[in-house]
Amino acid sequence: MGSADSKCIGERGGDQQPVRNNGVYCTGGGGGGGAALTKDKLPMPDTDELERRFTKVLASMDLPPDKAKLLKQYDDVKKWDMICDQERVSAKDPPSHYLNKLKTYLDPKASRSSRKRKMVGDSTSTQVLRDLEISLRTNHIEWVREFLSEENRGLDVLVDYLTFRLMMLRHEQRLRESMEEEDDMRNLNGQLKTSVERDSPRMKRASRHVQKLNMGDSKDDIHVCIMCMRAIMNNKYGFNLVFEHREAISCIALSLNHRSLRTKALVLELLAAICLVKGGHEIILNAFNNFKDVCSETQRFQTLMAYFMNYECFHIEFMVACMQFVNIVVHSVDDMNFRVHLQYEFTQLGIDDFLEKLRHHESEELQIQISAYLDNVFDVAALMEDSETKTAALERVAELEDELALMAEKISEMEAESLAKMVELEGELVELRKQKEDLENMNSKVQEEVSTLRREVSQKSEESRQRQSLLEKQIQELENLANSSSAQASVISGKESTGGAPPPPPPPLPGMAPHPPTPCAPPPPPPPLMGSGPPAPPKLPVGMGGFHAPPAPGSLAAPPDSMTIKKKVNTKYKLPTLNWVALKPNQVRGTVFNELDDEKLFNVIDFLEFEEHFKIGLGGGAGKANGDMSEVDSLHAFGSKRIKKLELTSLMEHTRLRNIAISRRKLDLPFDMVSRAVNSLDLKTLNLDSVELMQRIVPTDVEIKAYREYERERKPINQLTEEDQFMLNLSKIDRLSTKLQIMSFIANFHDNIHMVTPQIHAIITASRSVKNSAKLRKLLEIILAFGNYMNSSKRGPAYGFKLSSLDTLCDTKSADKKMSLLHYIQDTVRMKFHDLNNFDAELRFIEKAAQVSLENIMTDVNELEKGMEQAKKENDRHRDMRSAEGQAALAVLRDFLSNSEDKLRKMRAEAKTAQTAFAEVLEYYGESSRSMAPNTFFAIFVRFTKAYKTVEQENEQRRRLEAASRQAALNQQLAQQQKQQQEQQQVARNNKINVRKQQAYGGEVNYILVFFSVCETNFCLCCLNLIMFPVIEAGHFQETKYTLFSSQIIWR
């Protein structure tokens, strides 16, 4: 059989130019249908004309988009070659030339018409079909469309001719089978029987028709018809026509009866292409249903599988095509059940066993198709087993998920505990820092007082020295005056002897000053001794530093007029002291404790039982050792570093230069782009990471001054390093630091809002829930009652207590150290006030609020407001700018402000609400807003609720253990009673035996049954039977003998 296929090549051959058709260059083969080609080549036009004509050529080729895109990438020379090749091709014959010949072959009367025989000429039908196939494959797409048009209906003519040749082929096959049967019968009977079908008039007329029209062989015509179908389906328009022509697809499927394996492979390739199109799978199955009816198959695909498995010679192309077709038919269905059905059809035809034989074939292509089929086979039994395994696995997964959820819950609880512990430690650290500051302030004040006193002492000593020198001077003057007075006295005495005036009064004694004309101040006290040191500082006032001394019994100040005076409680036993921080009566006003009445609970709660559990002996309680905690603060002084030149190429010091180089590599943007992005606030070009990187390398004032000095000296800029040049350019950007801050603020704004808002809501919700909790108020009332019952006899009654005292409830232990005060309070609540057990349900969001710092929230809000004000100022500054960068920055700022101002305003209002709500709940519980933060305040309730739930579980476990112990004791008591009853029954039986023995002696024997029981000591029970045998003579006892008859000891 001659091949009608033309050869595809990639280079020019002879005088034929390769023509591109659907992405493949093919030569126009010989025959009348070939394209007429010329060798002339025109000069290349300009670019616009070249592109226009090349676009027209691509449109005429009807290529897929991907292949057309590939051809558009050719250079101008290749494009011009393609244009020339395409324009040189001209169709030799129109489509009607071939269609008229095919119609003539189909006309039964054509063999009797000389005109029609002349029109057909000497060429055979096979040659006509070959020329048609070449024209369909090589001519322009317009020629193909004309062939398939409604006027010519070329597809219908080609299908009719293929149907006619298939009918002839089936007749030839039946005739061949009949002849083989006749040969067999002739061999058996020795007679020659003539074939009726071979000599029938119909077959004679068909044979004469074929001979007169010079038609070719049916096998060749069918093969070339299939190739014509492939050429038609090679473009989108023709493929759609074939797809909608059901008879054409049926004819293609029936062509599988062709004996050529090459033809079968070509048919299977066309059917597989149709099957891959949406809706094509159903069309192919219908075509094989028609094949089954026409060829009288018992099962669909029976003939195909017979060709596949029972081959005369192994044709690899057919085997690969057949296996590919089976894969597409079976595995291109979405419905799994239908896929299993199709798979089972091929399984019944024996494909599974045959594929096992072919698994190790040397052909790689065939192995790929076989592996594709076997890998996608549905094993229903294995699927059922997998389904059962999956069910068990899913159950196991569910169990593991439950375990994982429990572990996650435990982890979250541990995290919450660790966070609570951190909050607690932070609170203690804050308190210790405050105490440290108070002590430092106190120390500074004392040092100031000491220095003041020293200055005063120094001044007084100086004044005393001055007065002493003054007095010494006055004494010297008085001594001089005394000497002059004594001289005058001697003169006067001489005059007296001669009768003068009376002598003057005696002079003052040494050391005595005469009365001065003006009164003098008394001399100052002597200066202190050298070794005495400065005076002692004043003592610290009581109560400083947060330490409160307990008031003496009866020394409490009288409560306000609106409050009743509480009475002391006199207990039967000495009780431990609850180390709480009591509130004074004037501190209770306006708090929750002003609403509580704990004295009424004294008649509700059984405090006598409480005293039995918590009574202590005469010995004092264990004291606590408080360790001092010191905190060391380290201060790091950052000195300005002198900028020095490195080899006259850098104005930065080495570390700074290296950091700038690293930052520039990370930034990876030219300076012009960086400058435009900064000036226009473009966060798309400079993302948040780049902005933060830029903020770290902003030139300092010292660096800016150095660069300006460098420029004033007119030194060459290109001698600086790239980093220095970059920094020099950065220093020229106006308000660089401010713009980067605004960009960072805009980029982080929404994240900050989303981070701070939930914290604000947690504080608001937690504050309101704690303040409005009625169950918590009742529980605090119970705690106050217990505390006053324990402390009022020593410290007087308390009207309230600090919430930090709740932590001490677990520290106060009972006499046997087995339970704490909180254990007893929880047990009392369970028995007397069971509705308070779930008080923690009213305390919502306290755990989240315990992790929040209101001070940090307000700081964040203030920082956001500062950033917003900065953005507004920058917006006002850019209003008058007309540059492109200024307008771009103005657009960014306006868009940000319009979308963000309301959010910030709302968050500020919510933050104020949180402050107010928290201040109200602090005041309501008697706490100070100065010393109590949310993470400290709410952490108290978090710890208390957790401790309460813990002791609740421990109490429940203790009650279960006590119930089990009581049941065991009861069982033991019942066992002892049963054992005693059995022993008593045994004694009763022994007594009956002894009575029967006495009756056997006729009454002459008296017996005494003596029981020695030591049941009180639980050691043993002794039963001693003494039987006395008296000898009676003449009515009186002559002799009495006692015989020990038996003794029995029963041990318990």
Number of helical segments?
34
Poorly predicted segments: 1-39, 190-199, 495-558, 618-646, 1002-1052
Rg to the nearest angstrom?
61 Å
Structural class: mainly alpha
CATH class of the domain at 19-300: Mainly Alpha
The beta-strand count equals: 5
CATH architecture designation of the domain at 19-300: Alpha Horseshoe
Shape: flat
The mean pLDDT is: 76
What percent of the residues sit in helical stretches (DSSP H or I)? 55-70%
**Which percent range describes the beta-strand content?**
under 5%
Sheet with the most strands: spatial strand order: 3-4-5
CATH topology of the domain at 19-300: Leucine-rich Repeat Variant
Strand count, sense and barrel status of the largest sheet are: 3 strands, antiparallel
Distance between the termini: 119 Å
List keywords for this structure.
actin filament binding; 1052 residues; two-stranded antiparallel ribbon; 5 strands; coiled coil; mainly alpha; Methane Monooxygenase Hydroxylase, Chain G, domain 1; GTPase-bd; GBD/FH3_dom
